[in-house]
């Protein structure tokens, strides 16, 4: 009888091992891993976020328009109560909504790493910022309601310098981030709402491509990294193009910045028209 029990246990161990092998070699393994890890993590952050705190439920549709290089199926949420406050020297809370390039079958990396993809180094989503002690203070705007572009670009710098690149193993002090404002346009109508200020900029920063050395937490969401092309360095310096649509939601005492990053101007316009502009904001 004992031998039968041992044989039964061994059988289940073999079955479990085979199941693990089947999942780990499935064509969508890295996408599934990203979703399984990031979905509960994102839900946890959403519960703490300025979205929930202010009942400001904006919607970023995830229907696929592009037939190639699909986006990650989830819009992810990250909430920051400490790091951004330390970075700014003021008690600002920050919630980030973001989406990046998706996974192709049998690929261990998302298109975020792929320099041949229009989703290379691309993100789009929203920044929500609110003062924790004096909510009526408008982040990114002066008392007259004029935009302060440096405040908004500092959010992108914080995101890149302290969140994105360190998650792949690059020390924040080694992150390059230089931004040049190319255009500021006031009183823009966007996503059915008047009063936005649009900021267009070019950004010199780091590529996500690098040689895998050891596991980094960012690999759980982006997949394993792609190495740079021959003759190119890890995390080499590249140029990206960015756009902000910023507004202060007086009803909610909340600063909102819709943003996107892309490897070229054509892709910037495409993401704006086909993805970001489909965002649905709460009704006043």
Structure commentary:
There is one protein chain. This protein has 284 residues and is of the alpha+beta class. The chain has one domain (27-278). The protein has 7 helices and 7 strands, in the order αααβαββαββαββα. The chain has a 7-stranded antiparallel sheet, with helices on both faces. A hairpin with a 4-residue loop joins strand 6 and strand 7.
Number of strands: 7
Strand line-up in the sheet with most strands: 1-2-3-7-6-5-4
Write the element-wise H/E pattern from the N-terminal end onward: HHHEHEEHEEHEEH
Radius of gyration: 21 Å
| CA-CA gap between termini | 71 Å
List segments where confidence is low: pLDDT < 50 over at least 5 consecutive residues: 2-8
Structural class: alpha+beta
Q: What is the count of structural domains? A: 1
Count of helical stretches: 7
What proportion of the residues is helical, as a percent range? 25-40%
What fraction of the residues are assigned to beta strands by DSSP? 25-35%
Shape: globular
The pLDDT mean sits at 90
Query: Major sheet, described briefly?
Result: 7 strands, antiparallel
Keywords: Membrane, Transmembrane, Transmembrane helix
Helix and strand layout, with pairings?
Blueprint (H helix, E strand, L loop, with lengths): L1 H23 L4 H20 L1 H5 L21 E5 L2 H6 L3 E8 L23 E9 L17 H16 L12 E14 L2 E14 L12 H4 L14 E13 L4 E9 L2 H10 L10
Antiparallel strand pairs: 1-2, 2-3, 3-7, 4-5, 5-6, 6-7
What key attributes describe this structure?
25% strand, 7 helices, alpha+beta, disordered N terminus, seven-stranded antiparallel sheet, 284 residues, 7 strands
């Amino acid at each position: 009888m004992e031998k039968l029990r041992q044989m039964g246990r061994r059988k289940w161990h073999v079955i479990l091992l085979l199941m693990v092998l089947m999942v780990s070699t499935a064509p969508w393994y890295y996408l599934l891993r990203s979703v399984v890890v990031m979905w509960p993590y994102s839900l946890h952050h959403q519960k703490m976020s300025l979205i929930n705190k202010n009942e400001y439920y904006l919607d970023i549709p995830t229907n696929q328009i592009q037939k190639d290089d699909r986006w990650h199926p989830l819009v992810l949420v990250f909430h920051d109560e400490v790091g951004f406050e330390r970075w700014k020297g003021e008690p600002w809370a920050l919630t980030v909504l973001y989406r990046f390039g998706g996974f192709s079958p049998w690929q261990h990396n998302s298109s975020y790493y792929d320099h041949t993809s229009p989703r290379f180094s691309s993100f789009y989503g929203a920044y929500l910022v609110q003062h924790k002690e004096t909510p009526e203070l408008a982040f990114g705007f002066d008392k007259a309601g004029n935009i302060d572009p440096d405040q908004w670009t500092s959010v992108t710098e914080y995101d890149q310098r302290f969140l994105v690149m360190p998650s792949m193993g690059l020390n924040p002090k080694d992150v390059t981030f230089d931004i040049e404002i190319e255009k500021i346009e006031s009183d823009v109508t966007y996503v059915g709402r008047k009063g936005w200020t649009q900021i267009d900029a070019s950004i010199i920063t780091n590529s996500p491509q690098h040689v895998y050395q050891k596991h980094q937490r960012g690999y759980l969401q982006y997949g394993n990294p792609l190495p740079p092309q021959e003759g190119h360095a890890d995390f080499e310096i590249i140029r990206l193009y960015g756009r902000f649509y910023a507004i202060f939601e007086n009803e909610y005492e909340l600063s909102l910045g819709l943003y996107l990053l892309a490897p070229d101007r054509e892709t910037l316009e495409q993401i704006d028209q086909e993805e970001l502009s489909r965002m649905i904001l709460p009704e006043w």
